[in-house]
Amino acid sequence: MPTLDKSVEELLKMSTASALTLFDNTSVAFAEDGSYKINFHKRFKILKESGKNASEVFIPYCEGVELYRINKAYTITPNGKTISATECKTTSFYPGYPAYRGTAYIMFSMPAIEIGSVIEYDIDIYSVVPMIKDRILFELQFPFSYPTLSAMMTFSYPVLSLHKPLNVKLYNSNVIPVISKNNNDRTMQYSWRLLNRKALEGEVDSPPLRELCPELVVSDFASWDEVAVFVKEIFSESSAPTKEVEELTSEITGGAVDKIECARKIFKYIQNSVRYVAIDFGYAPFQPQKIMDIIKNKYGDCKDSVILLLAMLKSAKIDACPVLIRNRARGGVYTEMPSPYEFNHVISLLKIEGHEIWLDPTDKNTAFNVLPMECQDINAFILFENKAEFRKTPASQPIDNQFRSENIIQINNDSSIQGKFTLKVSGWTASLHRQMLKGLKENEKEEYFRHFMQNIYSPVEISSYKLYNLENLDSNFIFEVNYVAKNQLNKIENLIAFAPTANYYGTFSELNKKERVYDIVLPATFVRNDKIIIDIPKNYLVKTLPKNFNVSFITGSADIDFQESNEQIIICFQENIINNHIKAEQYDEIIQYRDNLSKNLSQQIIFREIEEAGGAGVEVVGKK
User: Fold this and answer.
1) Average confidence (pLDDT) over 556-568
2) 115-142 burial string, b = 16+ CB within 10 Å, else e?
3) Is 61 in contact with 128 (CB distance < 8 Å)?
4) Cα angle for residues 584, 590, 592 (degrees, 5° grid)
5) How would you classify the pairing of strands 275-276 and 299-300?
6) Average pLDDT across the chain, whole number
7) For a FRET experiment, which of 80, 101, 346, 488 has its CA 20 to 30 Å from that of 328?
8) Cα-flanking dihedrals φ and ψ of residue 117, to 5°?
9) What is the predicted pLDDT for the residue at 257?
10) 8 Å CB contact between 511 and 204
11) Which of 77-81, 161-165, 196-200 ranks highest by mean pLDDT?
């Protein structure tokens, strides 16, 4: 077993590691016809209770196309006893979906795990038939979940393939590969050895893994034009309109003449009728279902939904084309590495009377001509009929992602408050709420709103709630909650103190580290407006009203305004985020903003009871 050298001991001192990777070796060997063998050989040492998660092994594979063999899997206990893993099983990634019965996971648990144990497994996955005949394509990330003593990555392929422009690169690493040729089996081999690697930091709002960890990418495609031809051939085999598609299109469009209205109806039909089942490993990233199977099964992944969309649009005489994107990793595509593996999602682009309309029919919570947030402002490979080109998808503006709330509060004599909270949202926040609420039972929805309000006032009970536009994606999503929250006031003699905005968290409230390693990447830019209206309690006057606060910072601005008017206190809190990517070196400024905002949101309003003297109340003290 490898011993820990000084540099590794330093790694552990600098880390809150729950486990240590002693070695992590991965080898990939391709044959001339595109078949392959992958070997994973890993060894970990458990350092803390949470490190026991390393003993649960999940490896995806494509049943029917791939086979696997476990060469060894065992635990060495702290007292030196070796115990082999005896139980291994496979499970379908999507049980109940016959079209995807081949996508599966190999799962096994390492036995006798305790702190100080060492676990090791060695497993082969090899293809029965090539994923893509006569093609060499491969991508694999190496996220270092734990400090790693040694990682070895090896890729080999037959020299006979040299007539193809094979590109091999390990991204996010400055390690130069050792390249060797084996004349006996006529293979070329690339090897990378990475030593004493720190674990990835678990930071809120981090960049995607593709920007942080090494990733091996291999492709024998010579150009993006070749990729376009390859994908178009696959799509053309499945997307040709049939008589059944034409009849379905006629039924759905209902004789509508306006092409935009026709496109809207077709989009909504697919959006609501075809259940999204995402598959992006095995052969599934490339091969769609047949169009009649999509109509019959009423489920499919992004390719299936887009193929049906394109066929129906073509039946309606509307020009449209598929668009390949990578909606993970903020759309990060290695444009110098032509490969269909660079993409994991398909959307569509329509052109109607000079207007471009971007559609993602797989997203159930986004309106017509609005892309989901993860599909916005990213590299897109557009497969026009006669050409293909890269272009950025449209980006929403802060005003498109609005968060508006109104909270009308009544203060009770028993130190509780009761109120009506109304939230009106658009854009990505609306999509998120719709996604969470659809399919919930009534009691589950009540619990959802109780949990939402609990983040503002605790403890809280929900009296009633109403939803508006849950299914109507063309309008803002709205919900109203009537609530009662106990123990919200501090009473001292004739004074009442209340901090109504103490838990109105700002954007960066979850940042809790003193230092930042990675950049901060927020989901989107947005505009937030919160309004709180408090009825001044009967027989009380306002003694102290907090000061107003406003600040501008590197990524936006915030304002808090306190006003007294007509026996009410009106508080307006506005936050504008105009830049959603913040450099790690700007972290101190973000933390300073967060702390200042939190301090000002935590200010208390002080009410003073009116002192009666001969039936007359005393004068209002006012602001201080």
Assistant:
1) 93
2) eebbbbbbbbbbbeebbbeebbbbbbeb
3) no
4) 130
5) parallel
6) 88
7) 101
8) -70, 155
9) 87
10) yes
11) 77-81
Distances (CA, A) of 601 to 42, 456, 550, 562: 49, 12, 11, 11
DSSP character at residue 458 = S
Q: What is the dihedral of CA 321, 324, 328, 333, to 10 degrees?
A: -140
Count of H-run helices and E-run strands, the chain: 9, 35
Residue 405: name the closest of 558, 510, 246, 533 by CA.
533
* Per-residue confidence (pLDDT) for residue 86, from 0 to 100: 80
What is the structure's pLDDT at 613? 46
Please give the pLDDT value at position 175. 94
Can you list the pairs that 15-18 forms with residues at least 24 positions away whose Cβ atoms lie under 8 Å?
A: 15/147, 15/198, 15/199, 17/47, 17/48, 17/51, 17/146, 17/147, 17/199, 18/46, 18/47, 18/48, 18/49, 18/50, 18/51, 18/53, 18/146
* More confident site: 256 or 91: 256
Position 285 scores a pLDDT of 54
- Here the tokens at position 459 are 């403890």
> 505, 494, 487, 466: which is closest to 411 by C-alpha?
487
pLDDT higher than threshold 90 for residue 286: no
Angle between helices 428-437 and 442-454 (to 10 degrees): 130
Q: Is the pLDDT of residue 383 over 70?
A: yes
Q: Which two tokens stand for residue 407?
A: 């909270």
Instruction: Check if the beta carbon of residue 126 is closer than 8 Å to that of residue 37.
Output: yes
| Residue 290 pLDDT | 83
Q: Tell me which amino acid residue 397 is.
A: Q
Report how far residue 199's alpha carbon sits from residue 21's, in angstroms, rounded to the nearest whole number. 10
Instruction: Tell me which DSSP letter residue 54 carries.
Output: G
Cα(562)–Cα(577) distance, rounded to whole angstroms?
22
Strand partners, 123: 40, 70
CB-neighbour burial class of residue 70 (10 A; exposed 0-12, middle 13-18, buried 19+): middle
Asked whether residue 314 carries a pLDDT value surpassing 80, the answer given is yes
Q: Which of 486, 566, 558, 496 is nearest to 533 (CA)?
A: 566
Position 281 scores a pLDDT of 42
Scanning 355-492, the segments in alpha helix (DSSP H) are: 428-437, 442-454
Q: Measure the CA–CA gap between 568 and 338, rounded to whole angstroms.
A: 63
DSSP 8-state assignment for residue 223: -
Determine whether 49 is exposed, middle or buried from the number of CB atoms within 10 Å of its CB (0-12, 13-18, 19+): exposed
SS3 (DSSP) at 16: coil
Sheet of 460-468, strands arranged across: 460-468, 477-485, 417-425, 402-411, 526-535, 568-577, 556-565, 549-553
Q: Tokens standing for 253?
A: 């469009």
d(CA 345, CA 71): 35
